[in-house]
Amino acid sequence: MQPYRIAVFASGSGSNFQAIVDQVQCGKLDVSIELLVCDRPQALVVERAKQAQVPVFTFKPKQYESREAYESLILQELLERKVDLVVMAGYMRIITNTLVEPFYGRMINVHPSLLPSFPGIKAISQAYEYGVKVTGVTVHFVDGGLDSGPIIAQHAIDVWEGESEEALTNRIQAVEHQLLPTVIGSFRSGKVKLEGRKVIFVN
Fold it and tell me: Is the pTM of this model over 0.85?
């Protein structure tokens, strides 16, 4: 079987990136991580990638005249590495059509809420301050909007009475670390089918 090549985009500590690496290294996830893309060269995720011997493409957005300018370079990197699936794992930038169009249906994102509730940044804080009783994690396709693409998978989490936001965050991240690699595995197995806004899992 041909290797299934993924690229991971991240901006921060890279705990979801590490979760993917761990699943690959222990043999639970049969993919090849071809590239990490990061918009913050000093981010911890860059060190994680180096330790895992994953090639890294870093850039500083302010050094480019537009999003399209740096995304064109990223696209070239993805195409040269024959990437099958792009995984947004804590990447804090809106993606333009420069990347969305060539990879639509092959670009996914993990988000720490039950979309369509609480899109955008600080989703956990938004939900916590709103006082929801149930929140969770969503993995969805990227369509260029703000966490608006078709939903692939969701996992609900009860918010415990008196629970701190930090404790809730830790529980949500633990779910992310399980759900995202599982979804990647479903893509690897060819089980994910997109029909309009509906996502179907086939055997």
Answer: yes
